Amino acid sequence: QSALTQPASVSGSPGQSITISCTGTSSDVGGYNYVSWYQQHPGRAPKVMIYDVSNRPSGVSNRFSGSKSGNTASLTISGLQAEDEADYYCSSYVISRNLLIFGGGTRLTVL
Amino acid sequence: QVQLVEFGGGVVRPGTSLRLSCAASGFSLSNHVMHWVRQAPGKGLEWVALISYDGSQTYYADSVKGRFTISRDNSRNTLQLQMNSLRAEDTALYYCARVSSYSSGWYSFDYWGQGTLATVSS
Prior knowledge:
Chain A is mainly beta. Chain A has strands spanning 9-12, 18-23, 35-40, 47-50, 64-69, 72-77, 86-94, 99-102, 106-110. In chain A, strand 7 (86-94) and strand 8 form a beta hairpin.
């Protein structure tokens, strides 16, 4: 099972908005609403930012939002802040195989 | 509060075995599906395995199927990963992760441990 496709890096200035894409197939991202997004700072464990495509856990800033169109899911961060600089990973359930796959990760740089 | 603490990592030779454990506290393990996820040094996240609430269902990534076994002891609130026939490419930080109480599926995590490092080297 191949990893989901994410851009290796994105960047933005404080206050701007950025979007990170996560492209899969109809057997994973496109087939079910079990896409999650995780933020990972260096040396730290991942933290869930979005689950089930567009749901935000309690305590996560409303500057983070998720969506999906076809086989591509997206994470949008609005009003960029310095603390948002981190690696971001998407994940998706793989239909009928009971597997989970991750994207390769995207390094967000806040300029 | 909810805590997951992994232990059991170390340096081992290729072809040997290692058993990782994850001690859960602050919640009842029996109420959650659990996963292992690994991260090779400087690399991305890779899903390893999952186990259902009572351990009756287990699923594995193709890369570890037949070599790794996930298990749980709900009475002791612990999760295990038995890793056999280890290879250099299994070198990674191994995280245990709890499935979110809010997700409708078994595939989103709300708590992660800090990880335990397994290094396979001759």
